[in-house]
Write a structure and sequence with these properties.
It contains 14 helices and twelve strands. The protein has 367 residues and is of the alpha+beta class. It folds into two domains: 145 residues, ATPase, nucleotide binding domain (Nucleotidyltransferase, domain 5), CATH 3.30.420; 177 residues, ATPase, nucleotide binding domain (Nucleotidyltransferase, domain 5). An eight-stranded mixed β-sheet has the order 5-4-3-2-1-6-8-7. Strands 11-10-9-12 form a four-stranded mixed β-sheet, with helices on both faces. The termini are far apart.
Length: 367
Protein backbone atom coordinates (compact mmCIF):
# COMPACT_ATOMS: atom_id res chain seq x y z
CA UNK A 1 0.00 0.00 0.00
CA UNK A 2 1.32 3.44 -0.97
CA UNK A 3 0.33 6.64 0.82
CA UNK A 4 1.32 10.29 0.84
CA UNK A 5 1.88 12.38 3.98
CA UNK A 6 1.48 16.09 3.30
CA UNK A 7 1.93 19.32 5.26
CA UNK A 8 0.45 22.42 3.61
CA UNK A 9 1.67 25.61 5.29
CA UNK A 10 1.50 29.29 4.56
CA UNK A 11 4.81 29.42 2.66
CA UNK A 12 5.47 25.81 1.65
CA UNK A 13 3.90 22.44 0.87
CA UNK A 14 5.94 19.43 1.99
CA UNK A 15 5.20 15.79 1.24
CA UNK A 16 6.61 12.31 1.56
CA UNK A 17 5.55 9.07 -0.12
CA UNK A 18 5.63 5.73 1.69
CA UNK A 19 5.00 2.10 0.87
CA UNK A 20 3.89 -0.33 3.55
CA UNK A 21 4.66 -4.01 3.10
CA UNK A 22 3.27 -6.07 5.97
CA UNK A 23 4.74 -4.20 8.96
CA UNK A 24 7.62 -2.63 7.04
CA UNK A 25 7.62 1.10 6.20
CA UNK A 26 9.58 2.15 3.09
CA UNK A 27 10.19 5.78 2.13
CA UNK A 28 9.74 6.20 -1.62
CA UNK A 29 10.73 9.85 -1.82
CA UNK A 30 10.05 13.31 -0.49
CA UNK A 31 9.54 16.74 -1.93
CA UNK A 32 8.24 20.24 -1.43
CA UNK A 33 6.95 23.37 -3.05
CA UNK A 34 8.92 26.15 -1.35
CA UNK A 35 8.58 29.94 -1.15
CA UNK A 36 4.93 30.03 -2.23
CA UNK A 37 3.68 33.26 -3.86
CA UNK A 38 7.24 34.50 -4.47
CA UNK A 39 9.18 35.03 -7.69
CA UNK A 40 11.70 32.39 -6.60
CA UNK A 41 9.21 29.65 -5.65
CA UNK A 42 10.13 26.13 -6.80
CA UNK A 43 9.32 22.41 -6.67
CA UNK A 44 11.95 20.01 -5.39
CA UNK A 45 11.89 16.23 -4.98
CA UNK A 46 14.41 13.69 -3.74
CA UNK A 47 14.25 9.97 -4.49
CA UNK A 48 17.19 8.13 -2.94
CA UNK A 49 20.25 10.14 -4.06
CA UNK A 50 18.56 11.84 -7.02
CA UNK A 51 17.21 15.38 -6.58
CA UNK A 52 15.03 17.21 -9.10
CA UNK A 53 14.22 20.90 -8.98
CA UNK A 54 11.96 23.08 -11.14
CA UNK A 55 11.22 26.79 -10.86
CA UNK A 56 7.52 27.76 -10.55
CA UNK A 57 7.48 31.59 -10.14
CA UNK A 58 4.66 32.98 -7.97
CA UNK A 59 3.42 29.47 -7.26
CA UNK A 60 0.06 29.39 -5.47
CA UNK A 61 -1.24 26.54 -3.28
CA UNK A 62 -3.42 25.28 -6.13
CA UNK A 63 -0.57 25.42 -8.66
CA UNK A 64 1.76 23.73 -6.19
CA UNK A 65 -0.60 20.87 -5.41
CA UNK A 66 -1.32 20.32 -9.11
CA UNK A 67 2.44 20.23 -9.75
CA UNK A 68 2.91 17.64 -7.01
CA UNK A 69 0.06 15.48 -8.35
CA UNK A 70 1.56 15.60 -11.85
CA UNK A 71 5.23 15.28 -10.91
CA UNK A 72 5.00 12.24 -8.61
CA UNK A 73 3.86 10.29 -11.68
CA UNK A 74 5.93 12.00 -14.39
CA UNK A 75 9.18 11.83 -12.40
CA UNK A 76 8.29 9.02 -9.98
CA UNK A 77 8.09 7.34 -7.62
CA UNK A 78 4.55 6.40 -8.77
CA UNK A 79 3.62 4.87 -12.12
CA UNK A 80 0.06 6.18 -11.85
CA UNK A 81 -2.17 7.85 -9.26
CA UNK A 82 -4.22 4.68 -8.74
CA UNK A 83 -1.27 3.34 -6.75
CA UNK A 84 -1.96 6.00 -4.12
CA UNK A 85 -4.38 4.54 -1.56
CA UNK A 86 -4.64 7.47 0.88
CA UNK A 87 -3.32 10.96 1.62
CA UNK A 88 -2.58 11.95 5.21
CA UNK A 89 -2.85 15.70 5.72
CA UNK A 90 -1.34 17.45 8.72
CA UNK A 91 -4.13 19.40 10.45
CA UNK A 92 -3.38 21.86 13.22
CA UNK A 93 -6.55 22.68 15.10
CA UNK A 94 -9.90 20.91 15.20
CA UNK A 95 -10.71 22.12 18.70
CA UNK A 96 -12.79 19.81 20.87
CA UNK A 97 -14.75 18.48 17.89
CA UNK A 98 -11.94 16.43 16.34
CA UNK A 99 -9.59 14.81 18.83
CA UNK A 100 -8.09 11.94 16.87
CA UNK A 101 -6.73 11.02 13.46
CA UNK A 102 -9.88 11.08 11.30
CA UNK A 103 -11.15 10.45 7.80
CA UNK A 104 -11.78 13.94 6.42
CA UNK A 105 -15.53 14.42 6.11
CA UNK A 106 -18.05 17.22 6.57
CA UNK A 107 -17.57 17.25 10.36
CA UNK A 108 -13.78 17.61 10.09
CA UNK A 109 -14.03 20.35 7.47
CA UNK A 110 -16.63 22.19 9.57
CA UNK A 111 -14.38 22.01 12.66
CA UNK A 112 -11.43 23.40 10.71
CA UNK A 113 -13.58 26.24 9.35
CA UNK A 114 -14.92 27.14 12.81
CA UNK A 115 -11.36 27.69 14.06
CA UNK A 116 -9.98 29.28 10.89
CA UNK A 117 -10.18 32.77 12.42
CA UNK A 118 -7.89 31.87 15.36
CA UNK A 119 -5.58 29.58 13.36
CA UNK A 120 -5.44 31.37 9.99
CA UNK A 121 -1.82 30.56 9.15
CA UNK A 122 -2.55 26.83 9.42
CA UNK A 123 -6.25 26.06 8.94
CA UNK A 124 -6.69 28.22 5.83
CA UNK A 125 -4.01 26.41 3.73
CA UNK A 126 -5.26 23.06 5.06
CA UNK A 127 -8.83 23.77 3.96
CA UNK A 128 -7.60 24.90 0.56
CA UNK A 129 -5.54 21.71 0.21
CA UNK A 130 -8.50 19.51 1.14
CA UNK A 131 -10.69 21.30 -1.41
CA UNK A 132 -8.13 20.85 -4.20
CA UNK A 133 -7.55 17.16 -3.48
CA UNK A 134 -11.29 16.49 -3.33
CA UNK A 135 -11.70 18.11 -6.74
CA UNK A 136 -8.71 16.57 -8.51
CA UNK A 137 -8.35 13.24 -6.67
CA UNK A 138 -11.91 12.47 -5.54
CA UNK A 139 -11.29 8.71 -5.41
CA UNK A 140 -8.46 8.91 -2.85
CA UNK A 141 -9.40 8.97 0.87
CA UNK A 142 -8.09 11.98 2.80
CA UNK A 143 -7.08 11.50 6.44
CA UNK A 144 -6.58 14.37 8.88
CA UNK A 145 -3.68 13.87 11.29
CA UNK A 146 -4.31 16.44 14.02
CA UNK A 147 -1.55 18.17 15.98
CA UNK A 148 -3.81 18.31 19.04
CA UNK A 149 -4.39 14.54 19.28
CA UNK A 150 -1.22 13.76 21.28
CA UNK A 151 -2.26 16.24 23.97
CA UNK A 152 -5.60 14.58 24.80
CA UNK A 153 -3.85 13.04 27.83
CA UNK A 154 -3.20 16.44 29.49
CA UNK A 155 -5.07 16.51 32.84
CA UNK A 156 -8.02 18.94 33.17
CA UNK A 157 -6.16 20.93 35.84
CA UNK A 158 -3.48 21.70 33.22
CA UNK A 159 -5.87 22.49 30.35
CA UNK A 160 -8.55 24.59 32.05
CA UNK A 161 -8.47 28.39 31.87
CA UNK A 162 -9.54 30.73 34.67
CA UNK A 163 -12.57 31.94 32.71
CA UNK A 164 -16.23 31.05 33.41
CA UNK A 165 -16.30 27.29 32.94
CA UNK A 166 -19.69 27.16 31.20
CA UNK A 167 -18.55 29.79 28.69
CA UNK A 168 -15.38 27.84 27.93
CA UNK A 169 -17.33 24.61 27.58
CA UNK A 170 -19.87 26.26 25.25
CA UNK A 171 -17.17 27.50 22.87
CA UNK A 172 -14.55 24.78 23.43
CA UNK A 173 -11.98 27.13 24.97
CA UNK A 174 -9.37 24.92 26.60
CA UNK A 175 -5.66 24.22 26.21
CA UNK A 176 -5.34 21.95 23.18
CA UNK A 177 -1.59 22.23 22.56
CA UNK A 178 0.20 22.00 19.23
CA UNK A 179 3.15 20.33 17.45
CA UNK A 180 1.67 17.07 18.71
CA UNK A 181 3.07 14.99 15.84
CA UNK A 182 6.57 16.28 16.58
CA UNK A 183 6.28 15.71 20.33
CA UNK A 184 4.81 12.22 19.79
CA UNK A 185 7.74 11.36 17.51
CA UNK A 186 10.18 12.57 20.18
CA UNK A 187 8.43 10.44 22.79
CA UNK A 188 8.65 7.34 20.61
CA UNK A 189 12.21 8.01 19.42
CA UNK A 190 13.64 8.72 22.87
CA UNK A 191 12.32 5.37 24.13
CA UNK A 192 14.28 3.67 21.32
CA UNK A 193 17.50 5.55 22.08
CA UNK A 194 17.62 5.44 25.88
CA UNK A 195 15.94 4.08 28.98
CA UNK A 196 15.83 7.65 30.34
CA UNK A 197 12.37 8.14 28.86
CA UNK A 198 9.97 8.43 31.82
CA UNK A 199 10.13 12.22 32.23
CA UNK A 200 10.97 14.04 29.01
CA UNK A 201 10.83 17.69 27.98
CA UNK A 202 10.54 18.07 24.22
CA UNK A 203 11.57 21.51 22.94
CA UNK A 204 10.16 22.04 19.44
CA UNK A 205 11.80 25.33 18.49
CA UNK A 206 11.28 26.84 15.05
CA UNK A 207 9.20 29.51 13.35
CA UNK A 208 6.47 28.09 15.57
CA UNK A 209 7.57 26.74 18.95
CA UNK A 210 6.30 24.79 21.93
CA UNK A 211 7.68 22.84 24.86
CA UNK A 212 5.97 19.64 25.98
CA UNK A 213 6.27 17.78 29.28
CA UNK A 214 6.00 14.07 28.45
CA UNK A 215 5.47 11.64 31.30
CA UNK A 216 5.52 7.89 30.66
CA UNK A 217 5.11 8.48 26.93
CA UNK A 218 2.08 10.76 27.25
CA UNK A 219 1.69 14.51 26.99
CA UNK A 220 1.40 15.89 30.53
CA UNK A 221 1.55 19.62 29.79
CA UNK A 222 2.51 21.95 26.96
CA UNK A 223 3.41 25.61 26.61
CA UNK A 224 0.90 26.31 23.81
CA UNK A 225 -2.80 26.49 24.56
CA UNK A 226 -6.02 27.31 22.70
CA UNK A 227 -4.18 28.63 19.63
CA UNK A 228 -0.64 28.37 18.21
CA UNK A 229 -0.08 32.03 19.13
CA UNK A 230 0.33 31.06 22.81
CA UNK A 231 3.25 29.82 24.89
CA UNK A 232 6.71 31.24 24.16
CA UNK A 233 7.51 33.96 21.61
CA UNK A 234 7.97 32.77 18.04
CA UNK A 235 8.97 34.24 14.67
CA UNK A 236 5.96 36.55 14.44
CA UNK A 237 3.69 35.32 17.26
CA UNK A 238 3.75 36.77 20.78
CA UNK A 239 3.34 33.79 23.09
CA UNK A 240 1.63 34.39 26.43
CA UNK A 241 0.99 37.92 27.67
CA UNK A 242 -1.50 39.77 29.88
CA UNK A 243 -4.88 39.41 28.08
CA UNK A 244 -5.99 42.87 29.20
CA UNK A 245 -3.43 44.29 26.75
CA UNK A 246 -5.94 43.53 23.97
CA UNK A 247 -8.70 45.72 25.40
CA UNK A 248 -6.13 48.41 26.21
CA UNK A 249 -4.95 48.49 22.59
CA UNK A 250 -8.54 48.55 21.38
CA UNK A 251 -9.08 51.66 23.49
CA UNK A 252 -5.79 53.47 22.86
CA UNK A 253 -5.08 52.51 19.23
CA UNK A 254 -8.71 52.07 18.12
CA UNK A 255 -7.72 48.61 16.89
CA UNK A 256 -10.40 46.37 15.46
CA UNK A 257 -10.54 42.58 15.35
CA UNK A 258 -8.73 42.16 12.02
CA UNK A 259 -5.88 44.47 13.07
CA UNK A 260 -5.46 42.68 16.39
CA UNK A 261 -5.49 39.29 14.67
CA UNK A 262 -2.77 40.45 12.26
CA UNK A 263 -0.78 41.79 15.22
CA UNK A 264 -0.94 38.43 16.99
CA UNK A 265 -0.15 36.31 13.94
CA UNK A 266 2.20 38.37 11.76
CA UNK A 267 3.69 41.32 13.68
CA UNK A 268 4.79 40.05 17.09
CA UNK A 269 7.44 37.68 18.44
CA UNK A 270 10.97 38.02 17.06
CA UNK A 271 9.82 40.50 14.45
CA UNK A 272 7.78 42.59 16.86
CA UNK A 273 10.51 42.93 19.48
CA UNK A 274 13.44 43.36 17.11
CA UNK A 275 11.75 45.30 14.32
CA UNK A 276 14.30 43.49 12.15
CA UNK A 277 13.47 39.89 11.22
CA UNK A 278 11.44 36.76 11.93
CA UNK A 279 14.57 34.59 11.60
CA UNK A 280 16.63 33.80 14.70
CA UNK A 281 19.83 33.48 12.63
CA UNK A 282 19.40 36.99 11.25
CA UNK A 283 18.78 38.26 14.78
CA UNK A 284 21.98 36.60 16.00
CA UNK A 285 23.95 38.28 13.22
CA UNK A 286 22.32 41.65 13.93
CA UNK A 287 22.98 41.26 17.67
CA UNK A 288 26.68 40.61 16.99
CA UNK A 289 26.71 43.86 15.00
CA UNK A 290 25.29 45.79 17.96
CA UNK A 291 21.53 45.70 17.36
CA UNK A 292 20.19 45.85 20.92
CA UNK A 293 16.60 45.00 20.04
CA UNK A 294 17.72 41.91 18.13
CA UNK A 295 19.66 40.85 21.23
CA UNK A 296 16.61 41.55 23.39
CA UNK A 297 14.42 39.31 21.21
CA UNK A 298 16.95 36.47 21.58
CA UNK A 299 17.19 37.00 25.34
CA UNK A 300 13.40 36.97 25.75
CA UNK A 301 13.19 33.72 23.77
CA UNK A 302 15.90 32.01 25.84
CA UNK A 303 14.38 33.26 29.11
CA UNK A 304 10.94 31.92 28.24
CA UNK A 305 12.23 28.51 27.14
CA UNK A 306 14.27 28.17 30.35
CA UNK A 307 11.25 29.17 32.44
CA UNK A 308 9.11 26.43 30.91
CA UNK A 309 11.88 23.86 31.37
CA UNK A 310 12.09 24.74 35.06
CA UNK A 311 8.33 24.65 35.57
CA UNK A 312 7.97 21.31 33.79
CA UNK A 313 10.75 19.79 35.91
CA UNK A 314 8.85 20.90 39.01
CA UNK A 315 5.61 19.51 37.59
CA UNK A 316 7.11 16.07 36.84
CA UNK A 317 9.29 16.01 39.98
CA UNK A 318 12.46 15.66 37.94
CA UNK A 319 13.76 15.12 34.42
CA UNK A 320 15.26 12.18 32.56
CA UNK A 321 15.76 13.66 29.08
CA UNK A 322 15.74 17.13 27.52
CA UNK A 323 15.28 17.00 23.73
CA UNK A 324 15.68 19.74 21.11
CA UNK A 325 13.92 19.54 17.75
CA UNK A 326 12.51 21.88 15.09
CA UNK A 327 14.47 24.22 12.81
CA UNK A 328 16.06 26.17 15.68
CA UNK A 329 16.27 23.30 18.14
CA UNK A 330 18.09 21.00 15.72
CA UNK A 331 20.34 23.50 13.95
CA UNK A 332 21.24 26.33 16.34
CA UNK A 333 24.00 25.24 18.73
CA UNK A 334 24.27 28.78 20.16
CA UNK A 335 20.63 28.81 21.26
CA UNK A 336 20.88 25.30 22.75
CA UNK A 337 23.96 26.33 24.73
CA UNK A 338 22.30 29.50 26.03
CA UNK A 339 19.15 27.63 27.07
CA UNK A 340 21.15 25.00 29.00
CA UNK A 341 23.50 27.54 30.61
CA UNK A 342 23.19 27.63 34.42
CA UNK A 343 20.79 24.69 34.53
CA UNK A 344 23.42 22.39 36.05
CA UNK A 345 21.67 22.46 39.44
CA UNK A 346 18.72 20.81 37.68
CA UNK A 347 21.00 18.10 36.31
CA UNK A 348 21.25 19.63 32.84
CA UNK A 349 24.82 19.70 31.51
CA UNK A 350 25.83 20.28 27.91
CA UNK A 351 28.99 19.08 26.15
CA UNK A 352 30.06 22.01 23.97
CA UNK A 353 31.97 19.85 21.48
CA UNK A 354 29.03 17.49 20.95
CA UNK A 355 26.66 20.44 20.82
CA UNK A 356 28.65 22.03 17.98
CA UNK A 357 28.62 18.85 15.88
CA UNK A 358 26.94 19.29 12.48
CA UNK A 359 25.83 15.63 12.38
CA UNK A 360 22.12 15.63 11.53
CA UNK A 361 21.39 12.28 13.19
CA UNK A 362 19.76 12.20 16.67
CA UNK A 363 22.56 12.36 19.22
CA UNK A 364 23.25 13.13 22.89
CA UNK A 365 24.85 16.52 23.60
CA UNK A 366 25.08 16.18 27.39
CA UNK A 367 28.27 16.15 29.43
Amino acid sequence: MKIMALNSGGSSIKYQLYEFEKEKEISLGRGAIKRLYRDDSFWEQQIEEKTLRTSIPQCSHEQGLKAIINNIVEYGPLNNLNELKAIGIKCINGGNRVNSTSLIDFNVISALRDLESVTPVHNSPTLLTIDIFRRFLPHIPLVGVFETTFHQSIPPAHSTYGLPFDLCKKHGIFKFGFHGNSHRYISEKISQLTTADKRVISCHLGSGSSLCAIQNGKSFDISSGFTPQSGIIMSSRPGDFDPQVITYLQEKEKMHYSAINELLVKKSGFLGISGHSTEIWELEKAAQEGNERALLAIDVFIYQVKKYIGSFIALMNGLDSLVFTGGIGENDAFIREKICHNLDQLGILIDNQKNQSSDSLPKPIHD
